[in-house]
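seq:
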Amino acid sequence: MISAQTQRLKYVAGDFLSSNIALFLYNCARYYFGSNRTVFHPFANLEQFLTSHNVILGQLLFPISMMIVYYLSGYYTEVFRKSRLQELVTTLASAFISALIVFFIAIINDLVSERSYSYELIILFMVISFLSVYSIRCIITNKAASNIRKGNWRFNTLVIGAGSKAVEFIERQPDKNRNIGYNIIGVIAIPGEQISASIRKPVFEMADIKQVCSEKNIKELIIIPSKHNTKVLLNTVNTLFPLNLPIKIKPDIYNILVSRVRLSDFHGEPLVDISGSNMGYSAKNIKRVSDCILSLLALVGLLPLFAFIAIRIKMESKGGIIYSQERIGLRNKPFCIYKFRTMYSNAEADGVPQLSSGDSDNRITPFGKFMRKYRIDELPQFWNVLKGDMSIVGPRPERQYYVDLIIKQAPSYALLHQVRPGITSMGMVKFGYAKNVDEMIERMKYDLIYLENMSLLNDIKIMVYTIETVFTGRGI
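struct:
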């Protein structure tokens, strides 16, 4: 069985090769059409044009820019079970964007009085690029689909559930999901569920799932419970998140958890992938790249402000400038969040986690109250964003102590671990800081709404509201 990384490298290499071929063919065609309109009269022949400085530079740089477009399109995220229609649409859109890039950097410099000439060149490059890239992609995709269909490539899978429904699902696989390639290694018994006597696969305990996934090289997890107990299902999902594997569930079961249905498999049994948000691959990549660029700009541009804050903190009270604390992030994994210290040292000397009670909290320093009011204390978290722990927009992360308390009362909180936590969130702009667990649960409702409606446009709206909150001093 080939690895996902090797298959991804095939697509990357194929795209890079086809992009170079497409650009070379386009330059040949561009010279031919330009010669007919006396655009390239300084060049005696095609060879002189192709070996000119600008063309050689373009041949080196444009394929790289095209590869960036392909990455941002999300094409390299899923490498085995590609939708043929989605592949066609994605390649066509990438070719169009690449054509615009080539036009505004190269073609626009061609001196020609006919506007139609520019349009012809854009269409010409788009057609050449699409046919070249799509041809190689189809070859690789068809080969992968053939290997899966013939059983040469199979994906080791665990079924979470050991009841009668799980038995029915397993028995249907050879006939229904030949194009999907599930290789069901065994089942994991859900706590409290009665194990069916008809199970013909090895049965493992939930406590051993991490070891089983490692030893059996598990690639996917499919939840098939016999009873639709929302609390048990959500606790199970929260337990599976740290494994960093695709988690799938039947749509009728997922409807019990949330009102959204997002199908991932159309070839066989329809399943919902709940291991990530409902944003498309392209939007996720753009969001991540934008996060990194904005965070880097913020960290560099705000250095003078950081220096001033550091001096004020040291002048006002003893202790460090930066305060770090363990929080729970993407896929239920812990990480250290960074803030400017707003409290006196040893604010939790008794070891029991405590939430701030706002302006009346005597643990907060005078300058700390100012920073919290304008959310200045959160600025070091741009470093968390660069590291990949957080996003600029996403549900606010909590400590494990409070996560456990929240999940006991509101198990749906576990769904927030599908995405990276954020510096700001819909919950923060609509609700603000939470002073107790009940308020955390109220704020969580806004974050669940965000999760159901994640988009780049909504992220921009939340950032605008956050800026408004900062400048109006409504942080506390």
